[in-house]
Design goal:
Elements: H1 7-29, H2 35-71, H3 78-100, H4 106-113, H5 118-127, H6 130-161, H7 169-182, H8 187-193, H9 198-205
Length: 207
């Protein structure tokens, strides 16, 4: 009977069985990753989070810039009014995307709208004037940059709390990227803050 079975089906069953075994081992013995592996996984997640916040900030910066360009025109042509309509729609789209995403944006929404109630926010967005949308977009860009910075600082915190991370090429690369994104003028200043050794500071400085 086994010889007549669908090979693809057997492979799928094998993967399911392996997943179940791994899941059972984790339940029975806990997370079997090393501390370094756990730190690196956390750093990867934070790197992706920082990237997304940075992109969000860039998107809202673009919308804000468009609003300001139109605001600065004393006489507005039909093309300007069409651009205003497009910018308004884009701002609403970006704000609605924030509102419909997961709960990680809860404090971001609170900073922008003064509430994190999704129904209230949806109503505020729908009824917002271009002036209000410009204000929301400016706050969203500013707060998103702040969140990106916080994520990168957490990455550095992982490297500080588990120095062995810096002995791996992946951990070192993630830490260097965070250092670059944070934008400190001197890596030695960061090393001093983190009470790193001269060797660890040298590793961070290596390109």
């Amino acid at each position: 009977i086994a010889m007549n079975a669908n090979p693809i089906g057997l492979i799928i069953l094998g993967v399911i069985a392996l997943t179940a075994v791994v899941g059972g081992l984790i339940l029975a013995f806990g997370d079997f990753r090393t501390p370094v592996e756990r730190s690196i996984d956390s750093m990867k997640s934070l790197t992706a989070e920082a990237y997304n916040f940075k992109k969000t900030a860039s998107d809202f910066d673009s919308v804000t810039s468009s609003f300001e360009d139109i605001d600065n025109k004393v006489i507005k042509t039909k093309e300007d009014m069409d651009a205003l309509s497009e910018t308004t729609d884009k701002a609403k789209e970006l704000l609605n995307n924030l509102n419909t995403s997961d709960n990680r944006n809860s404090d971001l929404l609170q900073a922008i709208f003064g509430t994190n109630d999704k129904d209230i926010i949806s109503t505020l967005i729908d009824n917002a004037t271009p002036e209000q949308l410009e204000k929301y977009s400016k706050i969203a860009a500013e707060q998103s940059r702040k969140k990106a910075l916080e994520s990168n600082e957490k990455i550095l915190g992982e490297a500080v709390s588990n120095r062995d991370v810096l002995k791996t090429s992946e951990g070192l690369a993630l830490t260097k990227n965070a250092v670059t994104q944070i934008g400190y003028s001197s890596i030695k200043d960061i090393g001093a803050q983190a009470k790193m050794t001269d060797e660890q500071i040298s590793n961070l400085s290596t390109t």
